[in-house]
């Protein structure tokens, strides 16, 4: 019993050769992406006009805070990647990925073709929901159109934001014109 106990203490549960994991290249790639994103956000923040206020800094500080946070996550991800600390990844569900990519493509195509915010965002919602397992597609698109109609009214007429207008938006805007 003592020899077994001593062996476990000497090697330890994490120090045995079998417990060591290889460097996770996927994790290191994610870390590289975080560093690139942090650099892009910091560069973009450097182009903001400086507005000093009572607190000696203005809204231009927030891109730097976000970039610093992403860089910290990048460092943590590098450490996890070098130690092999990421959990085992599941196989990619290619049909779901294709639905999500199709959702983004449909939104872009519909916006550029003049369908407007409501139809484009409704398609994005419906296709993405289908990719996440919701069926039938016609129902998810219909729910997306209903939700985005409400969002359109709130954003356009509540907040005064300018959104891409299509036929549905023009019909909705009629009662709001003076």
Question: Can you give keywords for this protein?
Answer:
178 residues, mainly alpha, 7 helices, 0% strand, flat
What proportion of the residues form beta strands (DSSP E)? under 5%
- Average pLDDT confidence is 86
Query: Distance between termini?
Result: 90 Å
Number of E-type strands:
0
Shape: flat
Helix count from the secondary structure assignment: 7
**What string, H for helix and E for strand, traces the elements in order?**
HHHHHHH
Structural class: mainly alpha
What is the CA-based Rg, rounded?
Answer: 25 Å
Q: Sheet with the most strands?
A: none
Record the SSE blueprint.
Layout: H1 2-11, H2 25-46, H3 62-83, H4 94-112, H5 117-131, H6 137-158, H7 167-173
Helix pairs in contact: 2-3, 4-5, 5-6
Folded structure, characterized:
With 178 residues, the chain is mostly helical. The chain starts with a helix and ends in a 5-residue tail after the last helix. Helix 2 packs antiparallel against helix 3, helix 4 runs antiparallel to helix 5 (117-131) and helix 5 packs across helix 6 (137-158). The protein is built from 7 helices and no strands. The chain is 66% helix and 0% strand. It has 2 domains: 25-83; 94-176, no CATH class. It has helices at 2-11, 25-46, 62-83, 94-112, 117-131, 137-158, 167-173. The protein is flat and about 60 Å long.
